[in-house]
Design goal:
The protein is of the alpha/beta class. The protein folds into two domains: about 1-30; about 40-160 and about 200-245, 2-enoyl-CoA Hydratase, Chain A, domain 1 (Alpha-Beta Complex). The protein contains eight helices and eleven strands. The strands form two sheets. Strands 3, 4, 5, 6, 7, 8, 9, 10 and 11 form a nine-stranded mixed sheet that branches. A two-stranded antiparallel ribbon has the order 1-2.
């Protein structure tokens, strides 16, 4: 491991130097970011039909490079819906290929989708999982999936990094001092106290319950199986009530 900007990185010095050399060689060869990644596509409107792309990792208030590397900022989604309204679009097709993302900004984007006043359909071309599936359920005309695409993963998850052993191996001891009574304060890594774990579990349970309520409200034929957070291809997703139709969008 090496350190950079006071952070411990899981990479050796030689690996880090090789990465820098690789980026330098790519730049010298005239290669750009788009030679390595597919940027998120901006909205298009053709004959009154707006296509809005929900791709990659979903987040809120992201820097420009996030969408340059294929992700989606929830605020871009809301902005494009507003633009479709302003241009008098007669229909919106949400083109979805995303494994999900953060909860911050998700509800606001979902509200904009559901209340756009424009007939809409969600089309899954790849995957609509977790937060992306949450968004997909807000299309007024339902969800269509290509045969091999995946839908589902209904639920909430929070990752916690216990870096105690790694820090010990590096001879680093992390000490957090909080004001009296602020027992839920945390630096986001290290061992959880019982109170912290209980608090975080309650938060995840609440988010999961909200997700389930959203799906049950918008998908009346949903099967109980989906709430185990699995994700399923075309016909299986259809049988479980996750989607309304299997087809290929021309």
């Amino acid at each position: 491991m090496i350190t950079k900007n006071n952070e411990i990185l899981a990479i050796t010095q030689s690996q880090y130097e090789a990465s820098v050399q690789g980026y330098t060689m790519a730049a010298q060869a005239g290669l750009t970011l788009t030679d390595f990644v597919t940027p998120r596509q901006a909205m298009t409107i053709t004959e009154g039909v707006a296509r809005i792309h929900i791709s990659g990792a979903l987040t809120d208030q992201a820097p420009p490079i996030h969408e340059m590397t294929g992700g989606t900022d929830y605020r871009s989604l809301r902005s494009e819906i507003a633009e479709a309204q302003a241009q008098g679009a007669s229909e919106i097709i949400y083109m979805i290929n995303s494994g999900g993302g953060s909860i911050q900004g998700m509800s606001e984007a979902a509200f904009a989708m559901e209340n756009s006043g424009i007939p809409s359909t969600s089309y899954v071309d790849g995957i609509a999982a977790s937060a992306a599936y949450y968004l997909a359920t807000n299309a007024s005309g339902g969800i269509v999936s290509s045969p091999s695409s995946m839908s589902g993963n209904i639920g909430a998850i929070m990752s916690w990094m216990d870096a105690t052993n790694a820090m010990d191996a590096q001879g680093v001891q992390s000490i957090a001092i909080t004001n009296e009574g602020a027992d839920l304060k945390s630096i986001g890594k290290g061992e959880l106290t019982g109170a912290q774990e209980e608090f975080l579990q309650g938060m995840v349970d609440e988010m999961g319950a909200d997700f389930r309520a959203q799906v049950e409200r918008t998908r009346p034929n949903i099967k109980e199986e989906v709430f185990r957070a699995g994700w399923y291809q075309g016909d299986k997703a259809l049988a479980l009530g996750l989607i309304d139709q299997v087809g290929i969008l021309s």
